[in-house]
Amino acid sequence: RLNPALARLIAGHVFLHACMAGMRMAAPLLALRQGHSAAAVGVLLALFALTQVFLALPAGRYADRHGLKRPVGIAVVMACAGAGLSLIFPVFSVMCLSALMTGGATGLAIIALQRHVGRAAHDTTQLRQVFSWLAIGPAVSNFIGPFFAGLMIDHAGSTAGSTEGYRAAFALLAVLPLATWFWVRHTEELPPVIAAAGGPPARPCTRLAEPFHVNVCSRGD
Fold it and tell me: What is the pTM of this model?
């Protein structure tokens, strides 16, 4: 049975990742409607992953020093602001900035979450269970985000060629990360990771594709 505290963290991860997944569907569709080339849309899609490449190591170190809630709080603000910018200014250059912000927010949050749940698990069985659910989270959010964004695009747009439906989708996506903070805000923090004097520095939790290594990394072993 999944621990309720860990279940809340996984639920929070789903809502934040859903924001990015919905943006990753809606922004390229709007860019194509505005007449941008396939190459430009490809660049837009690539920007969702670009920030995560450069934030991975600093985000891991930051999470080691400050725990879970501070980096997740920053991620929530980044995601809300990123989707909100496209709501206010639905143009290609702003959508590129939104892609950087929502992608980076998702990367920052998952590093902090993996670090926390890896250290909070009491035994190997619970560790495997938690990371199994944490891996299922993006699959759920990859359905929720695009599905509801698509519904908003189809049903909130009053006239053909208008951006009203896309604005409605961006507004919905900007609200989703707030649910993440609702689930995470009461989480009990764990002690910070501190490297032993004269020993090697603790390695940040940056292996997003290998979640079972996060626990070892977080303990500084």
Answer: 0.81
